[in-house]
Write a structure and sequence with these properties.
This protein has two domains: 48-103 and 161-211, Sandwich (Immunoglobulin-like); 106-158. β6 and β7 (201-209) form a beta hairpin. The chain is elongated. A seven-stranded mixed β-sheet has the order 4-3-6-7-1-2-5, with no helix packed on it. It is α+β, with helices and mostly antiparallel strands. The chain is built from five helices and seven strands; from the N terminus they run αβαββαααββββ.
Length: 211
């Protein structure tokens, strides 16, 4: 009887340890969105330098983890932050239609990131056939991964330049991110802004600051 309780205690302790380790890993791997910080660099002084001023900079691994909560370069995407400063009395519209370089869709980026969790999910399921308590964290891991994926898609979409037109009011500043496949290299590109009143597109040549 004593031997039975000893074995039961070891089993319970093992299950608690597995769950504790799992929740630690899952919490660390869960998606935690962060705000995009303003562009640090040469920027026009509001109300003194008239015109539309556009700057762009690449994210390194540290920036990607800080503002997008993932190392997107590792999965094949280069994030580029674009800052648009409208120091005019005209309102403009911004959309993907005006971006002069091929970019990846936010759904595609999130999908590639989520694929990184597949080996862990397979590991839990294989371990579950050997030791059944692993089936429980494996199921929970799948739920957390799914929720993180949804949260990631929404956050990336909110931070990116979208297919639908976005309003850029007079004397305002807008920060957005685009995602380029890492096998494509660009030093500059053309960004077209649509004048809300005349519906004409104005081209702006944008140089990309490489970190």
């Amino acid at each position: 009887m004593k031997k039975f309780f000893n074995q039961l205690f070891k089993l319970v302790f093992c299950i608690i340890f597995i769950f504790s380790a799992f929740f630690f890993i899952s919490e660390r791997d869960a998606y935690h969105p962060q705000e995009i910080l303003p562009y640090v660099g040469s920027i026009a002084e509001p109300f003194r330098e008239k015109g539309v001023h556009i700057t762009a900079k690449t994210y390194d691994v540290r920036d990607s983890k800080a503002y997008l909560d993932r190392d997107l370069l590792q999965v094949g995407f280069q994030p580029i932050q674009i800052t648009i400063q409208n120091n005019t009395d005209q309102a403009y519209l911004l959309s993907n239609q005006g971006v002069g370089i091929p970019t990846a869709e936010t759904n595609q980026v999130a999908r590639y990131v989520t694929r990184a969790a597949i080996p862990r999910a397979i590991g839990f399921k294989v371990a579950g056939f050997v030791f059944w308590p692993f089936l429980i964290p494996g199921t929970i891991d799948s739920i957390i991964t799914c929720k993180s994926h949804i949260k990631m898609k929404r956050d990336y979409h909110a931070k990116s330049i979208k297919d639908e037109e976005e309003h850029l009011p007079p004397y305002s500043t807008l920060h957005r991110v685009i995602f380029l496949p890492t096998n494509q290299k660009f030093e500059e590109f053309t960004l077209h802004l649509k004048n809300q009143k005349t519906h004409r597109f104005s081209p702006f040549q944008v140089k990309i600051a490489i970190k």
